[in-house]
Design goal:
The protein is α+β, with helices and mostly antiparallel strands and 288 residues long. Helices cover 34% and strands 24% of the residues. The chain contains eight helices and 13 strands. Helix 1 (42-52) crosses helix 3 (76-89), helix 3 (76-89) packs parallel to helix 5 (182-196) and helix 5 (182-196) crosses helix 8. It starts with 6 loop residues before the first strand and ends with a helix.
Length: 288
């Protein structure tokens, strides 16, 4: 089997799964490419290992839950977040490498992996390697010197994180009937799931944000504890057959980047999370 189609190396205690220019080192628990390690969250690495060991086959969501989150069920939000993270780091914007289906589960299609970078002419002659090793450092030194001399002297601007990390804090319930309080949690969970389907976002799971249920938190604290740059907060009120939702998107400095007030019939309330997720995604896309 060619490396672009997936290949397993090593024994049961030390294995590497190769697909394209990526190497999944199961012994180290690391994903490598071009000799460097790609940082991944432990759950995402676990999902990748589960899929890589059965590459080309659909793996049911329940099997992934048992392998990565033993004893837990209903973790579709976390699975979707891990799939989105894998697609980003593997350059799989079209979802051809890491596939997901709500009914079938997930699959790693290793045949779709980008091929390993190789010289078309094969192994380079030793003389060429020697000359390249001698000349390349000189050329690089001259190039860096020219760039340094041509660069204006000013304070460097830190590069923005290209993948925004977002937390949806538990919505506050303002309904008069305490029996309606669970609906605020359902709205929060549905909004987390809707945002997690956006491959350009990293979204914290309900389990990570549940500690803020019924509590007030400062933006700086949320950013530090949850390692996010933005968070969504809001309230919901059910009364007289209507649902009223107020929500806002806040950055780590406390600046409001987006806000909304919505009033819908209870029969149409299920569409609210998707609508808010689209608007939040649009607002984050405009952040420089």
């Amino acid at each position: 089997m060619s490396q672009s189609e997936g290949q397993t190396e090593g024994n049961s205690t030390q294995r590497r799964i190769i697909f394209g220019r990526f190497v999944l080192d199961l012994a180290r628990g690391a994903l490598m490419t071009d000799g460097r390690e790609i940082p991944l969250r432990p759950p995402t690495l676990g999902v990748l290992a589960c899929l890589a060991e059965r590459s080309g086959q659909w793996v049911a969501a329940e099997e992934i839950f048992e392998a990565v989150w033993p004893g837990q069920t209903g973790l579709n939000d976390q699975l979707m977040q891990s799939v989105g993270e894998l697609r980003r780091v593997l350059g799989d914007a079209e979802g051809k490498l890491v596939m997901f289906d709500a009914d079938l589960g997930a699959m790693l299609q290793t045949a779709a992996a980008a091929p390993e970078r190789r010289n078309a002419s094969g192994v380079r002659p030793l003389r060429f390697r020697w000359m390249y090793g001698l000349i390349a450092p000189i050329v690089l030194a001259l190039a860096f010197t020219a760039i340094w001399l041509a660069t204006p002297r000013h304070s460097p601007v830190p590069e923005a994180n290209p993948i925004p990390a977002v937390a949806v804090l538990p919505f506050q319930d303002q309904s008069d009937d305490p029996a309606l309080a669970p609906r605020a949690e359902r709205l929060t969970r549905d909004l987390i799931a809707a945002l997690a389907r956006n491959p350009m976002l990293v979204v914290k799971s309900w389990e990570e944000v549940a500690v803020y249920k019924g509590a007030l938190a400062q933006p700086g604290e949320v950013a530090r504890v949850l390692a996010v740059t933005f968070h969504v907060e809001g309230s919901v009120r059910h009364a007289e057959g209507q649902v009223r939702v107020s929500a806002q998107l806040v950055d780590l400095k406390g600046e409001v980047l987006w806000s909304v007030r919505l009033v819908e019939l209870e029969t149409n309330a299920a569409a609210l999370p998707e609508r808010m997720a689209r608007e939040i995604g649009d607002a984050l896309a405009e952040v420089p």
